[in-house]
Amino acid sequence: MTLRQRLVQGAREPLVQFLLAGALIFAGFALLGQGPDQGDRKVVVDQARIERIVTLWMQTWHRPPTPAELDGLISEYVQEEVYVREALRLGLDGDDPVIRRRLRSKMEFLATDQLESARPEERVLEAWLQAHPELNVQDPKISFQQVYLGPARDASLDGKVAASALARLKGGSPPESMAVPLSLPRDLTLTSRTEIDRQFGGSFSDALLKAPAGQWTGPVSSGFGVHLVRVSQVKAGASPRLDDVRQAVENDWRAATRAEREAKAYQDLLKGYDVVIERPE
Known about the structure:
The protein is an alpha+beta fold. The chain has helices at about 5-10, 15-30, 45-60, 65-90, 95-115, 120-130, 155-170, 195-200, 205-210, 240-270; strands spanning about 140-150, 185-190, 215-220, 225-235. The chain has 10 helices and 4 strands; from the N terminus they run ααααααβαβααββα.
């Protein structure tokens, strides 16, 4: 390869083009009798920056860097800072969609961080709790008896077995005379829905809440099989006071109003700009 070909090939390299562009800018400053801004050419690695570098290192390696590692990290930061400043000086950030998206993402993060650090007023949380009682209402509690008839088999067979057992119960037969042994209590008193479903599986408590009070009914399916049940009492869940569920209410409020609060933060920023849109004719 000739020297001319080598020079042409080298001139096509991005780094060479970058350095040439920088040289042209410095030449322009020289022709105009101006030097580059000396303040902008001073890289200061202060104590706060070093602490930040160390913190980022420890988040990854879970130990402080050695003196040699810290020197390397500082040198890497200086190199990055020099390249970033030179790229900005050359205007390489202009109209770059990746950089624009990154800057937007950082601003949205800052705006969101400010929103999340703000504490909602007492009246806001109280109003939210009143408007959404279902999110924080306590579980209803149920008192009931259950007779376990065995594992689920064929639906029609289970229906016949349950119908026969149900008729006997309504006729006065004692529950224990037909119950299949199961390692769960036959009688539960004012037990929460959460606890009932934990013991019986599935949505057993839903069927109990739909059952008529004071009479045997079924079949009702659980994670174990087929049951007959008799509900004697349902105590509705009480609406809690704000002091008892403040953090849960605040979390619900933040999650539900996040988009609205982010839109408001953007509108507040937009008020400081004069936006002119020149559409093509």
